[in-house]
Amino acid sequence: MVSDAVYRDPSRSVEDRVGDLLSRMTLEEKAAQTAAPFGSAVDVHTPPEAGWGTVVASLSTLDLPPREAAKRGNELQRKHVEGTRLGIPVLIAEEALVGLKVRDATTFPDAIAQAATWEPEIVEQMGRTIGRQMVALGVRQALSPLADVARDPRWGRVEETYGEDPYLVGNMATAFVRGLQNAVGGVPVIATLKHFLGYSASEGGRNTEPAHLGPREVREIHALPFEMAIRAGGASAVMPSYNDIDGVPVTGSGQYLGKLLREDLGFDGHVISDLGAVNQLYTKHGTAEGTPAALAQALRAGVDADLDNRVSAAQVAEAIRSGLLSEADLDRAVAAVLRAKFRLGLFDTPYADLDLVPETLDAPGERALARTIAEKSVILLKNDPVDGTNLLPLSPDVGTIAVIGPNADRALGQLGNYSYQVLDSMVRRFAHAADPLAKPEDVAELAGKTGADDVSLLVESVPVVTFLEGIRARVGRDTAVLFEQGCGIATDDRSGFDAAVRAATAAEVAVVVVGDQAGITAFGTVGEGLDSATCALPGVQRELVEAIVATGTPTVVVLSHGRAFVLDWMADSVPAIVSSFFGGEEAGSAAAAVLFGDVNPAGRLPIALLGSVGAAPVPYWRNQQPFAYVDGSTAAVFPFGHGLSYTSFAYRDLAVEALDVPTDGVVRLAFTVENTGDRDGEEVVQVYGRDVVGRTVRPARVLVAFRRIPLAAGAAARVTVEVPASMFALWDEPDGWVVEPGEVRFVIGSSSTDARLRHAVTLVGDEVRLGGDRALFSTTTVQDAATAVDEFEDATRPPALHGTLVPITADSTVRECLDHPLAGPALLELLGGLDEDALAAAFGVSLTQMVTYSAGRFTQPMLDDLLVKANPRAGAAEA
């Protein structure tokens, strides 16, 4: 090792150090930096002479307490720093989506549950917690978070996403990245955005299958969250996806990894492949002939590190020697890896300080945060009255509760697939089956057992509070809690039904906990490689729920799940339904707090729950028009953004700063939200926008702002929202991002279908073509309504009339009527506050025809009244 080399000098620039080190490296040493072996398949603690660039899962697979794991990590690092010719440190990476995936680290709620909080601030706080834990153990790269936009509930990895809306996904991913990468001052760590790009739009919802996407959907939907997290969050790494887009595999595409990612989105970090994805260019996609050719294609395209179950350094060197890959392309990739290490300070401070490693990474404060996120993620989907009173919250005086269901008292039934407990239990079970020294009877016992009910906890880690434990801890001594499992997750065994029915019959209320088991390719009903054809409750769980409801005992269903189930049957028969998604280590405590009213639920759906899986994919912005199949509807049973509360909220006093806003300006709206109930609560205000006319087809409604707001009973808040006009930019090749003049409509409410306030503004001026610096986020501020002052125009009054309005007549179409500033609101009011999107099928029908066809819902007197309201000047003249 050369001690006085430029690359050893921390006072020199990163680029100087990278260039100097690169000039000193042999081909084998360069190739070694592109290798990222996976710890459960490769003995990463025994590196070769040239070392490795990155190691993944080197600590999680040890199953050691934090301090012991950090010690082993330091030993691995020492072998690189002190045992290789140039002393290049290794980059230690682990998964971190639901917490750092090592033993004794906090297990937070799954990503889809994090998204259900609709609170990026608390996700950022979680990211900071994970980042601190990483630094303590010497882990400097997290292979998280996902910025995939969930397109199809059949896809098993929906649980790892932040939902179906790109703006919500982008906000959550940005918050995670910002928190994690800035957790410890002076000690940077890397967040890895995945999976770039279009992975979640796979054909049929099948994992790794092709995505059929045009350039507009790529830019406007799938690339947007990545761009938000890169530009605003500063994400330092990206992982490409397994899929191909229109025949082009992303992992081998310079178009996506070079032009789009680096040039257009401004990314300057390093790219690490998904596990085995590079070799799939040969084995799956067939765009490369052999492994060396696949590596050459990926490195040329922009991949810097090859994550694999085997070490690929020798094949990279072979690709250079055989002429498949130029040394310049290899140098580009190696420079990216080295640049990341210099930016992290690994050359100067490579080791974790063992004295600072805590005994546990799940201290009381960290558990409290896990519980808070779980509580905030709980969604009250339905809460109907029983004997005149809403079933929830449950009375603390209840005498007997029956807790029933396969996920009621099973820790693995409430944890995400990338949690340490789930993933490493699976790894160990597979390892037992492959162990050549295993006893024959053990191998026989494991043979063929890879189903959801075959999984068992095989690793030690943090305590997990189940739903049964949470309820028992919450109720008083005078409450009897009965428990019956009833059935398994995915089997057809109904032998436990009778006992479950007896327990429900003997109780005053039944809490039935059903849902999923997370897994990866096996041992689950949801997760990576576990896609669904039906999105139904697995096994005989539906029959169990129906059997309990049939007893007549008031029934609450708690869903502990990762998949967006089809729940039309449940919505028709069960009085109260709660979604916990996978709520992590404190899911049981959080659910109990909501069930008994200690916490007023305010979670909101980040993905709709449909009435028919055949309708998928139907994102909410295409779900506003209730078209139907001959044997089913596309409508959502519970729509995007939906969630109930134990209190009520009213929206009023909408005001706008200006009716005309420049195409390069900002739309400013203000409105008041009031807690009109008798309980403190939180409301998630949601603002949706629609570009009415565009050169390309525009979505019917897209989320442009949201905010979770705590309000005491009787309190009101004044909410001001600033939406840059650039958020309505459309992608149009070859012009790029374009903001067009024209009308933009806003809908404000508590879900994508619950419209409380509406207003329209007009973007005026010339078309604006935007670059990479366009505004991607809106701004929402909240003030006490009693003291807030704004000077916006009152939007609740009829709008100022600009010149002469086109008269509305009986022959005007419904669309013309809705577009009219006076007739539109009047028609919706006459129809009982109906959402205008519900009239989509009648847009081309005349008002007279609507009277004829509406079967009495819209009558001739109502039409006469409408015409008077729509034409006030004409009415005055006639009088």
TrEMBL record:
UniProt-listed GO biological process terms: glucan catabolic process
Domain Fibronectin type III-like, first and last residues per copy: 683-752
Keywords, ordered alphabetically: Hydrolase
Superkingdom, natural source: Bacteria
SUPFAM superfamilies: (Trans)glycosidases (SSF51445), Beta-D-glucan exohydrolase, C-terminal domain (SSF52279)
Pfam family, one: Fn3-like
Family matches, as SMART domains: Fn3_like
MF-aspect GO terms: beta-glucosidase activity
Protein name according to UniProt: Glycoside hydrolase family 3 C-terminal domain-containing protein
